[in-house]
C-alpha cells in the first residue's frame, strides 16, 4: 500500500509526464500548488517509489518516469472522473443527432471523431465482426478439380469463392465434409470460423475423411473471410506525433499490426461476458508490437450482448482519464443509436 503522500507524488509525476513527455524532477513537482512538499522530501519518496517499481529513471537523468506498474496504479486508483468541455460535448452530441443514413458511414465517422478528440489512433470494429455468424456452408463442384464455396451468413449475405478440389477427392467426400462442417459450425461468428475449423473439426475429419490435409487446406482458403471493411482505423499517423515514436523504425511493427485485420480482431474482441472499459498497459498487451503502448477499449452492446468494440491505441504516456471518459460516452451513445438497427 502506498502512503497518501506517495500517492499524491505518483499522481503528480504521471500527470506531468503525460503533458511534457520529459522525465519529471523533484523541483518541478515541489512547485505545484497541490503538492506542498520540499524537493528533498519528494526526492526521498521518488526513490522509494522507484524501489517499489512504480517509477523508472531513464539513463542518467535526475528525473523519473512512470513504469507500466505505475501507470496501472494510476489508472486503477488515481484517475478522476472526466468531463468533456461544452464544445467537445456539443461536437459528439451533434454527430449522434445527425441521423446518418448508413451504419457504415456512421462507424467510419465515429472512428474519425475519436482520433481527432484524443490525438491517438482509433480502432473500431463494426458490429458485424461479432454479430454475423454462419448460417449455411456449401461446396458446389464446377468440374473435376474446381468448386464454388458458398457461405450464407446470419444476416442473409451470400459470399462465394472458387476453390481447387484436391486430386483424389470425390463428390461424396465433399458432401461428407459439408455435412460435418454444417453440423459443427452453424451459428459460429465468422471471425472464429477458421479457428473452430481446426479445434472442433480437425480430429474428427482426420478420422473419417480421406485426404484430410488437402481438404483442410481447401477449407482454410474457402473460409478465409477478410472483412477489411468491418475494421475502421483513424489517426494511424498520430503515432508519429508522439515523442516516443519519432523514430519511424520504432513504429514500423505497430503500423504492420494495424494492417492485419485478423490480428486486430483478436486483440479487440471482448472476452465472454466482458463489458465496459478495459485498459491494457504496456506488456499487458498480448502482441509484442504494442508492448510499449496502452490500448483502452470499450464494448457497445444491446440487451447485454456485445456487438462491437471501440478502442484507442497510444503511448503508455496517455491521458487515461480523458480517453476513458470519451470512450464511456461514445460506447453508451453507440449502444443507444445502434439499437435502431437491431430492434
List keywords for this structure.
19% strand; 3 domains; five-stranded antiparallel beta sheet; Beta-Lactamase; Enolase-like, domain 1; alpha+beta; 343 residues; single chain; Arc Repressor Mutant, subunit A; 47% helix
Describe the structure.
This protein has three domains: 4-78, Winged helix-like DNA-binding domain superfamily/Winged helix DNA-binding domain (Arc Repressor Mutant, subunit A), CATH 1.10.10; 86-130 and 229-342, GAF domain (Beta-Lactamase, 2-Layer Sandwich); 132-222, Enolase-like, domain 1. It contains 13 helices and ten strands. The strands form three sheets. A five-stranded antiparallel β-sheet has the order 7-3-10-9-8, with helices on both faces. The chain has a three-stranded antiparallel β-sheet with strand order 4-5-6, with helices on one face. Strands 1-2 form a two-stranded antiparallel sheet. The model has no long low-confidence stretch (mean pLDDT 84). By secondary structure, the chain is α+β, with helices and mostly antiparallel strands. It is 47% helix and 19% strand. Helix 6 packs antiparallel against helix 13 (320-342), helix 8 crosses helix 9 (193-208) and helix 9 runs antiparallel to helix 10 (212-222). Residues 104-324 form the Heat-inducible transcription repressor HrcA C-terminal domain. Pfam families: HrcA (PF01628), WHD_HrcA (PF03444). Keywords: Repressor, Stress response, Transcription, Transcription regulation. Belongs to the HrcA family.
Amino acid at each position: 500500500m502506498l502512503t497518501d503522500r506517495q500517492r499524491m507524488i505518483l499522481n503528480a509525476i504521471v500527470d506531468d509526464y503525460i503533458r511534457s513527455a520529459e522525465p519529471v524532477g523533484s523541483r518541478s513537482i515541489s512547485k505545484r500548488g497541490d503538492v506542498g512538499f520540499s524537493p528533498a522530501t519528494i526526492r526521498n519518496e521518488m526513490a522509494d517509489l522507484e524501489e517499489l517499481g512504480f517509477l523508472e529513471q531513464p539513463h542518467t537523468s535526475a528525473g523519473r518516469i512512470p513504469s507500466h506498474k505505475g501507470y496501472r496504479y494510476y489508472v486503477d486508483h488515481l484517475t478522476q472522473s472526466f468531463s468533456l468541455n461544452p464544445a467537445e460535448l456539443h461536437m459528439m452530441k451533434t454527430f449522434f443527432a445527425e441521423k446518418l443514413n448508413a451504419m457504415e458511414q456512421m462507424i467510419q465517422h465515429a472512428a474519425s471523431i475519436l482520433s481527432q478528440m484524443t490525438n491517438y489512433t482509433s480502432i473500431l470494429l463494426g458490429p458485424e465482426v461479432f454479430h454475423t455468424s454462419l448460417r449455411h456452408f456449401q461446396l458446389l463442384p464446377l468440374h473435376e478439380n474446381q468448386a464454388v464455396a458458398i457461405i450464407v451468413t446470419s444476416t442473409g449475405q451470400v459470399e462465394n469463392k472458387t476453390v481447387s478440389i484436391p486430386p483424389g477427392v470425390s463428390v461424396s467426400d465433399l458432401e461428407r465434409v459439408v455435412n460435418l462442417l454444417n453440423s459443427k459450425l452453424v451459428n459460429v461468428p465468422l471471425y472464429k470460423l477458421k479457428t473452430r475449423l481446426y479445434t472442433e473439426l480437425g480430429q474428427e475429419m482426420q478420422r473419417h475423411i480421406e485426404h484430410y490435409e488437402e481438404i483442410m487446406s481447401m477449407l482454410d482458403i474457402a473460409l478465409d473471410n477478410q472483412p477489411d471493411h468491418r475494421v475502421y482505423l483513424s489517426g494511424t499517423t498520430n503515432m508519429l506525433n508522439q515523442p516516443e515514436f519519432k523514430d519511424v523504425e520504432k513504429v514500423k511493427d505497430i503500423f504492420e499490426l494495424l494492417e492485419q485485420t485478423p490480428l486486430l480482431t483478436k486483440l479487440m474482441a471482448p472476452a465472454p461476458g466482458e463489458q465496459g472499459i478495459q485498459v491494457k498497459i504496456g506488456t499487458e498487451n498480448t502482441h509484442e508490437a504494442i508492448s510499449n503502448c496502452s490500448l483502452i477499449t470499450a464494448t457497445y452492446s444491446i440487451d447485454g450482448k456485445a456487438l462491437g468494440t471501440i478502442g484507442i491505441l497510444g503511448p503508455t504516456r496517455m491521458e487515461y482519464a480523458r480517453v476513458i471518459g470519451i470512450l464511456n460516452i461514445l460506447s453508451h451513445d453507440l449502444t443507444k443509436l445502434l439499437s435502431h438497427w437491431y430492434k
